[in-house]
Design a protein that fits this description.
With 257 residues, the protein is mainly alpha-helical. It has one domain. 81% of the residues lie in helices and 0% in strands. The chain is built from 12 helices and no strands. Helix 1 packs parallel to helix 10 and helix 7 packs across helix 9.
């Protein structure tokens, strides 16, 4: 890889880490880049987890320092997501990726309108009480989100935010902090599976991780200083852009204009 490509990977990682921490789907930036550099899709999918994992550690430590989450209080969310991630990563090579992309693209459009028409759910600053029955239901949701996260990663942050805000009753700023912690945990399991399967290129992953670590730190600081309203706007833009990319609408618009 030429020296300027290293700079490009670091820059892409920086932006992806920033977007991942504030909203999600930064992998839609890094995955295509890794494939452009010549990595097969399955290798790119595994290698991408290195940057996501490093970024998650940096962001989680920053959020923890800002007292936006407690380790013990997050276990009931982390455990089912990690279990799902293990399953998703183990079956990743057996699922038609294009069909999954179309399904996720459609769901992202649906989520866009939920956020757009119920903004009070996303900008409240105080968590609602969660009953044992509701906690069980949200745990099941985290399990299925973990399956998707283990399979392809891109967009998993959107679904976690929806579960954390609309299901667990967290304000968006705290939901962001919990989301990063959960993503880091499920990524650790998925990355282990990809490493064992020999689907990780370490040099690419390390270079990407440098950028994503810096982007994750920056995003964790901005998420708190800007507040939930600004994060919500970024979330809406990122969701629509990701949905257009996954469904092929973006390429259609480019061809038309």
């Amino acid at each position: 890889m030429e020296w300027y490509m290293y700079l490009a990977v670091i820059a892409a990682g920086l932006f992806a880490g920033f977007v991942n921490t504030l909203a999600g789907s930064g992998s839609l930036i890094t995955l295509p880049l890794l494939m452009f550099l010549g990595l097969p899709a399955n290798i790119a999918n595994g290698t991408n987890r290195v940057g996501v994992f490093v970024q998650g550690i940096v962001s989680s430590l920053s959020f923890r320092k800002q007292k936006l989450y407690e380790d013990k209080g997050s276990l009931w969310m982390i455990v089912p997501a990690v279990a799902g991630s293990l399953l998703g990563s183990l079956v990743a090579v057996k699922i038609n990726e294009r069909i999954m992309e179309l399904l996720i693209g459609g769901l992202l459009v649906f989520m866009f309108f939920i956020i757009l028409y119920k903004p009070e759910q996303w900008v409240r600053d105080h968590a609602l009480a969660i009953t044992p029955g509701r906690r069980w239901l949200v745990s099941v949701i985290f399990f299925f989100i973990g399956i998707y996260g283990g399979f392809i990663q891109a967009g998993v942050g959107f679904f976690l935010l929806a579960a954390l805000v609309l299901g667990a009753g967290l304000g968006l700023t705290k939901a962001n902090a919990h989301k990063v912690l959960i993503v880091t945990s499920l990524t650790a399991i998925a990355l282990t599976v990809f490493i064992i399967s020999g689907q990780v290129k370490y040099m690419y992953g390390i270079v990407l991780a440098i950028g994503q670590g810096a982007g994750g730190w920056l995003g964790s600081r901005v998420a708190v200083s800007w507040g939930p309203r600004v994060v919500r706007v970024i979330l809406l833009v990122a969701i629509m852009a990701s949905a257009m990319k996954l469904t092929g609408l973006f390429d259609l618009v480019v061809r038309l204009f």
